[in-house]
Amino acid sequence: MIHFDNVTKVYANQNRPALDHVSVDVDKGEFVFLVGPSGSGKSTFLRLVLKEERPNSGSIHVAGKDLAKLSNFKVPHLRRRIGCVFQDFRLLPNKNVYENVAFALEVIGKPRRFIRKVVPEVIELVGLEGKAHRMPEELSGGEQQRVAMARAFVNRPMILLADEPTGNIDPATSIGIMKVLDRINRTGTTVLMATHDAAIVDSMRKRVVELEDGKIVRDQSRGVYGQAY
Amino acid sequence: MRANFIFSEVWIGLRRNLTMTIAVIVTVAVGMALLGVGLMINSQVSKLTGFWSDKVELSVYLCVKGSPFDACKNKGAVTQEEKGNLEQTIRGLPEVESVKFETQAEAYKNWQNTENNTLLLSVTKVEDMPESFRVKLKDPEKATVVASNLKGQPGVSNVVNERDLLQSVFGFMDTLRNMALGIAILMVFAATLLIGNTVRLSAYNRRRETGIMRLVGASNIYIQLPFVMEGLIAGLIGGVLSGVLLILVKIFIFEEIQTYMVAPLGWDTVAGVITGTMAIGVLICVFASFVTLRRYLRV
């Protein structure tokens, strides 16, 4: 599903590569934690999957497509198959829960009938039934992140990228978030989650890929977070 | 493509930047109106030029009794012989196409038709009017040469090149047109910058939305269209206002001076000018939005 082959990424005006000859394979339906300290290249990895950045060398395949050969014109279509969740939720403050989720479908031109059908289903899947008409500011951090996950998942993506989704959320609420991610993973969606949260990684017992200074230092199935940093 | 989504985004964008939008509309309206005025003057001038270029001729006035011109002083009226010689000379010139003789009676009649001063009309007699040869040239450009050639001939009081009279009118209109076009260009430049600024503000205001649209895979056109539409609508409103201004200019200025213009400017020309300026206004707005988008909205 995601295939990195010897990928190196150096940002302009920087000597040290953000990713240094990284090769990883993530299969369909896998749940993978991407761990490592700040600046180890986790976010760069996610941005490369989205083709927000281009690698300096190496090849990347996502959902069967060689990103180097994917024209800019087709990048939006790639992104429709990838859902994204961030630490800072990125909800639209002037839209309620339903509208925030529906926005993701509206802007890719889905018919209204379809939107009216699937949005309530997804809101229920993330555990926000009955809160569809709340505004983001009326929700807790955990609830806001559920809205963001609903928005990321509403178009049934093949891949869900989560960049520190529990970074702004207390540990108790984080468990709920992880349950939603697990539920999404069980529908067959590949989940790739970058995180600092050792407790969560340890409790989930999923595959762990550890990055340090842009290099993969560990790739372990059913792994734990590892040494404290 | 969901039209009401685009339109609600456009409406929000325009309302948020209301002052900038108004600035764009006013600049486009004034700029395009000036451009239109320039084009209208231009077509008025070319119409007049076309009208006069067939008619332009040299008037070779002959001496009458008591003529104040130096050439006739102390000589009295032109003699029959001089007239005959002169006609032969003129006809002999290679530049001349045709010659017409205007008698004193004809000159008096023509003058009566154009003169409004009743006192002058009552004291002027037919005998005061000069006889003249109306000389039509094959090439109006040669008028000066021919005029200086004929000036010294006996019996000639004066030679008037009608083109010289028209030239001063055309020169004035050319200046007006150039000024209108010059200001129009400045206004178009200002409008372009204003639109660029509006789009930049708009892109900044909507950076959350556009960021999410990018992430969920909205196509570039879907992301950019609201911004371009904002420019287009502002340009369109400005264009309509400039059309109204041009109609006013036609009614209050061109209709007024029409009495002096033998070839008046028709409404069809005005309609053409309005359509043209509106199209240019809209194109400039859309172009400016598009160019600034490239800079401020990464897709």
UniProtKB/TrEMBL annotation, chain A:
Location of the protein in the cell: Cell membrane
One Pfam family recorded for the sequence: ABC_tran
Key words, A-Z: ATP-binding, Cell cycle, Cell division, Cell membrane, Membrane, Nucleotide-binding
Membrane topology of the entry: Peripheral membrane protein
GO cellular component: plasma membrane
Start and end residues of each ABC transporter domain: 2-228
One GO biological process term: cell division
Coiled coil feature spans: none
Function according to Swiss-Prot or TrEMBL: Part of the ABC transporter FtsEX involved in cellular division. Has ATPase activity.
Matching NCBIfam families: FtsE
Homology family: Belongs to the ABC transporter superfamily.
Protein name per its UniProtKB record: Cell division ATP-binding protein FtsE
Organism of provenance: Microbispora cellulosiformans
Upper classification of the organism: Bacteria, Bacillati, Actinomycetota, Actinomycetes, Streptosporangiales
Automatic annotation (TrEMBL), chain B:
Gene Ontology cellular-component annotations: plasma membrane
Domain FtsX extracellular: 56-159
Keywords: Cell cycle, Cell division, Cell membrane, Membrane, Transmembrane, Transmembrane helix
Coiled coil: none
Any Pfam family: FtsX_ECD
Signal peptide: none
Boundaries of every ABC3 transporter permease C-terminal domain copy: 183-298
InterPro entries: ABC3_permease_C, FtsX, FtsX_actino, FtsX_ECD
Subcellular localization(s) per the UniProt record: Cell membrane
Keyword Cytoplasm: no
TM ranges: 21-41, 179-199, 232-253, 273-293
Membrane topology designation: Multi-pass membrane protein
BP terms from Gene Ontology: cell division
Subunit structure of this chain's protein: Forms a membrane-associated complex with FtsE.
Family designation: Belongs to the ABC-4 integral membrane protein family. FtsX subfamily.
Role noted for this protein: Part of the ABC transporter FtsEX involved in cellular division.
PANTHER family (UniProt xref): CELL DIVISION PROTEIN FTSX
Protein name: Cell division protein FtsX
Organism: Microbispora cellulosiformans
